[in-house]
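User: Design a sequence. Structure:
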């Protein structure tokens, strides 16, 4: 066994440490300075060896410059694709083509119609696709109340829409249209919307929301009604299915509806042989009977008047 002081391995370590210390002093150009801490030596050596020429030729710099060029070039392509047809064509052939259309939130909006509205941009480069212009085209569809359009790379256009909700059928000038709550005319009515309440007459579309909201509180009437007619832009008539037409007053028509519901619940007025119930006068109710029923009633009254009630 060799003595500890005679260990060759320890001698080599001492020599290496001494050489490192001398190199550190040389690097720092300070002969009398303390040895550089061991954890800083590699950084100091790298700084000493990185001369301008060596830095320019370094692999890290080449990779950094190449990456920067790619980023700048890619940004230029995005910014100028809509101005440069060649750039748009190249990016389109590289797979960045607006070839897919995804629509969310549509219930009544026809996707084929929407696709036709965007036809001038679909199929071109996704970079050159103009989102704002596409959104304006989508908003031109009467079913669409609001919309957002976004690109999903590499090849998809996503359209999110909020549709107008039809609340009634509006019959005017021989045509029946769907209208929204604000009176906007959406489209011509189809079979799937025939269960909606119907309003008739000039200006009925703009006044329908308030009237429909109120009459929904009187289900005995609304369930029997076939249409609500706007008269002279001032008041409403209620057409009862297989029953009379009710003439509501211009003012306090809500009170009149309440009275009409009470009459129906107690007297079944709307189920009788009545063709018209006039409620326009505040102090009276005028009822017009069916002609046949009126004739029968007239004969019954005449017979009653001719009878001698004093004879037994």
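Assistant: Done.
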């Amino acid at each position: 066994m060799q003595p500890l002081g005679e260990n060759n391995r320890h001698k080599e370590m001492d020599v290496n440490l001494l050489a490192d210390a001398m190199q550190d002093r040389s690097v720092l150009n300070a002969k009398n300075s303390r040895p550089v801490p061991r954890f800083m030596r590699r950084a100091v050596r790298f700084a000493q060896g990185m001369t301008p020429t060596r830095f320019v030729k370094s692999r890290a710099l080449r990779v950094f410059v190449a990456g920067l060029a790619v980023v700048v070039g890619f940004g230029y392509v995005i910014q100028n694709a809509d101005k440069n047809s060649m750039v748009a064509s190249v990016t389109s052939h590289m797979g960045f083509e607006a070839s897919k259309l995804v629509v969310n939130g549509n219930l009544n909006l026809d996707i084929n119609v929407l696709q036709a509205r965007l036809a001038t941009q679909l199929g071109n480069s996704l970079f050159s696709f103009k989102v704002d212009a596409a959104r304006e085209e989508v908003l031109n569809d009467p079913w669409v109340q609001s919309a957002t359009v976004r690109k999903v790379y590499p090849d998809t256009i996503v359209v999110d829409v909020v549709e107008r909700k039809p609340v009634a059928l509006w019959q005017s000038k021989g045509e029946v249209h769907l209208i929204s709550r604000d009176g906007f005319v959406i489209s011509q009515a189809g079979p799937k919307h025939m269960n909606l309440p119907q309003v008739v007459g000039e200006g009925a579309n703009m006044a329908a929301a308030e009237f429909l909201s109120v009459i929904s509180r009187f289900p005995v009437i609304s369930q029997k009604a076939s249409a609500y007619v706007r008269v002279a832009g001032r008041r409403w008539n209620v057409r009862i299915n297989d029953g009379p037409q009710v003439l509501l007053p211009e003012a306090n028509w809500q009170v009149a509806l309440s009275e009409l519901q009470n009459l129906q619940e107690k007297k079944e007025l709307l189920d009788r042989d009545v063709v018209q119930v006039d409620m326009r006068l505040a102090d009276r109710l005028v009822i017009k009977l069916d002609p046949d029923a009126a004739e029968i009633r007239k004969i019954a009254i005449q017979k009653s008047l001719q009878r001698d009630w004093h004879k037994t």
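The first strand starts at residue 100 and ends at 104. Confidence is low (pLDDT under 50) at residues 1-5.
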